[in-house]
């Protein structure tokens, strides 16, 4: 299927990254969120990110004005009435995602493929809401999106081979590769990562080591670019807690029990980079 116009729902950190990467790949993009203030912030962030990309990649040609010109910032879903593909990036909350996908199903044309950018929510469950379950696919982008070359692509129970091929085609246009996995809670990346992060929080809670010491061991002993607690701050501690709670509920396995310190930090509003303080403090 020829993909020309791509909708991106949610102009947070992930939506900004996905929208930027699509525009850099030459796609016409509609970035949708609930108000103009959020969209104005998204436009500023994308402009800044493109300038930084151009600065760090001097051998790569990039017309910032033309790239931004391929993005329409909007609050009205009617802009998606002729979209070929949609990537949904709203918060990891089932009721919110449900409402968005019902709206997309009503507005998007019959051929549109809809991707769920999620770390834990069932692709099969989302597909069951719609009249197009074979065209619902998971695409778990990693943050920061423009810098990550690989995307976890999740096949729901009804997801067709044609939909998988279309998702891979879209990713190839963004300069990315898709690795296809099956629809089980947490998929591959989060089923492993959330356990690692949660156990790292237990280490801090039990005073085995400080956050800095835990991260240093993972970076200097294992060669990780970021430690698990730096990664948690980047993702957002509220998102980490929600994901581990979904895994705990889904598998009924005590190994996924959320660390009390993680719950306490989220209750205190310490969500990481997104609001300036988590395991580390950010200016």
Automatic annotation (TrEMBL):
The record marks 140 as: Important for catalytic activity. Keywords: NAD, Oxidoreductase. Belongs to the 3-hydroxyacyl-CoA dehydrogenase family. One of its GO terms (molecular function) is 3-hydroxybutyryl-CoA dehydrogenase activity. NAD(+) binds at residues 10-15, 33, 92, 97, 119, 143, 274. Pathway: Lipid metabolism; butanoate metabolism. Residues 5-183 form the 3-hydroxyacyl-CoA dehydrogenase NAD binding domain. Residues 186-282 form the 3-hydroxyacyl-CoA dehydrogenase C-terminal domain. It comes from the Bacteria. InterPro entries: 3-OHacyl-CoA_DH (IPR022694), 3-OHacyl-CoA_DH_NAD-bd (IPR006176), 3HC_DH_C (IPR006108), 6-PGluconate_DH-like_C_sf (IPR008927), 6PGD_dom2 (IPR013328), NAD(P)-bd_dom_sf (IPR036291). This is 3-hydroxybutyryl-CoA dehydrogenase. The lineage of its organism: Bacteria, Bacillati, Chloroflexota, Chloroflexia, Herpetosiphonales. Its EC number is 1.1.1.157. One of its GO terms (biological process) is fatty acid metabolic process.
